[in-house]
């Protein structure tokens, strides 16, 4: 059993480009971390190695959040190991282009089953645990500014993120005052270096951002820190986008 005075965070998607920085940042801040990985075991193990330098009690579990049975199993394993849940960061997400007019059912299912269904059942499991605790806990969903934009090549992705912003408000109202539920909507923070037009894309996107630069992972971590410490914000979506949504 663990030291039950330390705060504990359950996180999905902690091996992602942004997710990893959030997980390590939270461990550095004093959280014990329990996180899920799906396909990239090596990235997850590297994340865990780094996290354990701050929090030896931290652990990880394989879990495809598009399968609700696996989510339930992950939370059961979590509860056998930890006896409190202070924070859920729901970051796991699929992202790929699906030009309107040729979206396949398979692509729709892959995006929506992970980003919307998986996030919903993750929040439900966490809220069921948190609502039995005699202290304030928090949920942060990771969405995207594109939830409010018209991106014709990404409709299933953007719709799933818009739906998660809605769920954020539903959970916030339902579980107040015990659980504070908010969403962080990043603009462009990382560009996948494997995309063959990565450099061009970075230039083009930067020109559309009023603050004239892509965001840094520290900008997202700063927002996570803010929400973890704040006691009077719930049901909000915080755009961290250099002003991109103003254009
Ligand atoms: N990075 C950005 O610039 C940016 C911009 C806007 C919004 N966001 C949002 O911020 C969050 C974090 O982004 P990121 O850069 O860390 O994303 P990322 O690099 O694409 O990583 C995605 C993460 O989600 C996990 N995942 C995907 N499908 C899953 C499934 N079915 N079950 C369980 N895990 C699954 C992946 O695990 P495996 O690798 O193990 O499969 C990985 O850890 C995401 O919600 C994203 O939509 C990011």
Q: Overview of this structure, please?
A:
By secondary structure, the protein is α/β, with parallel strands linked by helices. The chain has a single domain (8-246), classed as 3-Layer(aba) Sandwich (Rossmann fold), CATH 3.40.50.720. The chain is 44% helix and 15% strand. The protein contains seven helices and seven strands. It has a seven-stranded parallel beta sheet, with helices on both faces. The chain is globular and about 50 Å long. The N and C termini lie far apart (51 Å). NADP nicotinamide-adenine-dinucleotide phosphate binds at residues 12-13, 15-19, 36-40, 63-66, 91-95, 114, 118, 142, 144, 186, 188-190. Belongs to the short-chain dehydrogenases/reductases (SDR) family. This is SDR family oxidoreductase. It comes from Prosthecochloris ethylica. InterPro entries: NAD(P)-bd_dom_sf, Sc_DH/Rdtase_CS, SDR_fam. Keywords: Oxidoreductase.
